[in-house]
Write a structure and sequence with these properties.
The complex is a heterodimer of chains A (about 140) and B (about 350). Chain A has one domain: Double Stranded RNA Binding Domain (2-Layer Sandwich), CATH 3.30.160. The longest helix of chain A has 27 residues. In chain A, about 50% of the residues lie in helices and about 30% in strands. Chain A is of the alpha+beta class and about 140 residues long. The N and C termini of chain A lie far apart (about 45 Å). Chain A has a 3-stranded antiparallel sheet with strand order 1-2-3. Chain B contains 12 helices and 6 strands. A 4-stranded antiparallel sheet of chain B has the order 3-4-5-6. In chain B, helix 2 crosses helix 4 and helix 8 crosses helix 9. The chains are: A alpha+beta (about 140), B alpha+beta (about 350). At the A-B interface, helix 1, strand 1, strand 2, strand 3 and helix 4 of A face helix 3, strand 1, strand 2, strand 3 and helix 7 of B. Strand 1 of chain A pairs parallel with strand 2 of chain B. Chain B: Keywords: Lyase. Chain B: GO terms for molecular function: lyase activity.
Chain lengths: ~140, ~350
């Protein structure tokens, strides 16, 4: 991740972070965070619209199952939403977000996010190198 | 139409379900994981037709119904109704798609080039029968390029517009709950474009192919050429309580644009769906291309193809004919007997 990752970058990385790793890391934040309020921990649907390139309309492609967690501590929000049916992983994301927002274990949180960002970037790069192998070098006869 | 209430079949019904499930045996997490890993394109098809993206649930639906696709889609759509809608994501824009495959049959040198991605289009369709006699089939690994392909590819139609070949549409400003939604409103005709495209996105693949193929064979007004076909992943862009936008993950999507000459310009047809399903998108885009001015009752008329490609309704209507129709059928028999008796009476010589 860039040195100055935005909040949006961090949330995006946490939402794609490996479920086992983020759960394991979030466990270590529970004690330092102390008492928190859990406002939401549930599964639900996100409707996904798409732009039609022929007519310009915005239409609904379908819904995506997500897990959502919303926690607060002293009025500060921590939020997690991830694709799939894993409430613990969404809660782990919310805890990391809350810790960052509260300035708790900041260095460890940043290191975790940076490490996950590197892994995800590498996975994307590996995928795109395979995609690039299928590029047609068109020759006209 | 009339039905008759009957009793006495409870045990038979219970045992018939047991008989169906006995063939499938125990379903556990390992089987669901195996279905998900082994049949990703079938999982995609079910997610697209169910209009619900979750690979685990779609694999479970397939495992639980033994691959009876209509049942799998139905059980997934039914499960969907148990879940609250949390939000509506930001609209997916074509330029933002993380693209795995992107080809054009209309233009060779499209900006960004042609990237085949994962496909069997050019392979020999040979069954690996050795697998059945104990020799596993291990596909050769991809030899990755040194450098990655660009994650995002430009739009072919935008390039065509720059070359004065097509008119680019004005983007619709509707967002969030203002976008028309078939799951909450009836489908009325003439259909809103958002309803047409949502309906095609949820449509049953075989039905869309059958009607799209009819148009391709000549029972339509325009012959399609694939302008652009993409298999990609789209970000689910949602908002944090403080307003920050972020991606809650990616989902696989496919989209197709087909093109046909329309006077001095090119006319476009479009379709997209959740999951990777090229045949459905090309067929659906062909129906979209042909729908304007289509004769009433033709396969390319919007009302005809939207009503007849809704797989859950179509299969449900089909299987309802198995329910007892004793009253209606007896009524038909009575009418037949009456007609026969009347005709016989008329044919008797007058005294």
């Amino acid at each position: 991740m860039k040195t100055k990752a935005t909040h949006s970058d961090v949330l995006t990385v946490l939402a794609r972070a490996d479920a086992a790793r983020i759960k394991s890391f979030a466990e270590t934040l529970i004690t330092p965070l102390g008492e928190i309020d859990v406002l939401q921990s549930r599964t639900g649907l996100v409707m996904l619209p798409m732009r039609d390139t022929a007519g310009g309309a915005t239409f609904h492609l379908g819904e995506v199952l997500v897990s959502e967690a919303h926690v607060t501590r002293d009025g500060i929000d921590g939020y997690g939403m991830r694709r799939g049916r894993d409430l613990e992983a969404a809660m782990a994301m919310a805890l990391v977000d809350l810790a960052r927002a509260c300035g708790i274990e900041t260095a460890r949180c940043e290191a975790f996010c940076a490490d996950e960002a590197i892994r995800q970037a590498q996975a994307d790069r590996d995928t795109l190198r395979c995609v690039q192998a299928t590029r047609v070098d068109m020759e006209t006869f | 139409m009339a039905y008759v209430a009957t009793r006495g079949g409870e045990r038979a019904i219970e045992q018939s379900e047991r008989l169906f499930r006995a063939e499938l045996g125990q379903i556990d997490a390992a089987r669901v994981a195996e279905v998900k890993q082994a049949l990703p394109y079938l999982v995609d098809r079910v997610m697209g037709e169910a209009s619900l993206y979750d690979e685990d649930l779609a694999a479970l639906a397939l495992a639980q119904t033994g691959g009876e696709l209509y049942e799998a889609v139905l059980v997934l759509r039914a499960w969907r109704t148990t879940q609250p809608r949390l939000t509506v994501a930001a609209p997916i824009e074509q330029d933002d798609l993380f693209t795995h495959r992107r080809i054009s049959a209309a233009f060779k040198d499209i900006p960004g080039g042609q990237v085949l991605g994962p496909t069997l289009d050019y392979s020999h369709r040979v069954l690996a029968t050795d697998v059945l006699t104990g020799t596993p089939y291990d596909p050769p690994a991809v030899e990755p390029a040194a450098d990655p392909a660009p994650a995002h590819q430009p739009s072919v139609s935008a390039w065509q517009a720059a070359n004065d070949l097509v008119d680019l549409p004005k983007p619709d400003a509707a967002t969030g709950e203002a976008i028309p939604d078939l799951t909450r409103e009836p489908l009325l005709f003439p259909s809103k474009r958002a309803h047409t495209l949502q309906s095609l996105a949820r449509a049953e693949t075989g039905g869309v192919l059958a009607l799209g193929y009819a148009a391709m064979r000549g029972y339509g007004q325009a012959h399609p050429t694939v302008n652009e076909l993409r298999l990609a992943e789209a970000e689910i862009v949602v908002k944090h309580p403080n307003g920050t936008e972020f991606s809650a993950g990616r989902v696989k999507v496919s989209q197709a644009e087909v093109v046909s000459k329309k006077g001095e310009r090119l006319g476009l047809g479009f379709a997209a769906t959740l999951g990777w399903n090229e045949v459905k998108c090309i067929s659906a885009a062909t129906l979209d291309l042909n729908s304007k001015g289509a004769p009433k009752g033709s396969p390319t008329e919007e009302e005809f193809f939207l009503y007849h490609t809704e797989g859950v309704e179509a299969s449900g209507f089909c299987i309802h004919f198995k329910l007892p129709h004793y009253v209606t059928f007896q009524s038909s028999l009575d009418a037949m007997r009456d007609a026969k008796a009347t005709r016989a009476a008329e044919q008797e010589p007058a005294e």
